[in-house]
Write a structure and sequence with these properties.
mainly alpha
Amino acid sequence: MKRMPLPLFRRVVFFSALYDLLLTAPFATPWSFGLVRAQLSAFNAALGGAALPDFAGFHLLMANLLGSIVVVWSVLRLRHPEPRLGRYDGAARFLFSTWMAWTLQATGQPVLWLFLVPEFAWGVAQWWPLAGAAAPPPPGGGARA
């Protein structure tokens, strides 16, 4: 398997963060999420799925918390597109992909494919082997002073 050069990997981390910021920022406030939820629902219906359910206050809170933390996490990776942060982000993307796939299987809502495919692809890209990468440190971060 061909290894990815560090400058390219840093660009992958940067652009995955930019993608997240643009896609997730509307989830960060109740007002913007209301607009994006309506658009997602209409798009899902256009793809042959059912209208998305209405969100109660608690559901809205969960969506806003997710949007808020992803916005902050995105800004961190935009400012510091380091391999370590890319690896963590890749792991999070595999977790998110797992829950999206589970929900897709449970609901059959086609709009989920629009999130699942890029989410998994960004995860793979950020777990790609790095060229010239040193062996990972031992568990616990190595020797302590």
